[in-house]
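>> received
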Amino acid sequence: MSVGELGPKNVVTASRDTELPALTESFENEQVGAIVITENDEPVGIVTDRDAALAIHSHDDLASVTAEEIMAENPATIRDDEDPIEISRMIDEHNVRRFPTVDGDGKLTGIVTLDDLVATIGEELDNVSETIEAQSPEYSP
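>> returned
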């Protein structure tokens, strides 16, 4: 299994000049917590729902705030062919919970999150517990 198999392939994207009202509408309609800002199919930024909420305190005219003004530039990315355990290392190194996935050319292919890692670990632990229970009939969790 690779990182590219964990998260969704259909990533919500926007451009640098997308205004905040359009971004927040996408958060709601697409039920996502992050929008990847792209140029030429490459991630150049990321805007989270938290970034949008915090914009209230630093901008007077929210309707004209653009993605570029509130995005985290040059987001940490992870290659889609990496081993999923690499997500844990990346979380530790970059202190973020969402990573656009990219191919060998740096083109956006998806997104993975801390939640994807936890869900994958949970599934693997479930498989392990089934094996333990099958091999140890006396075992009871």
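>> The first helix runs from residue 20 to 30.
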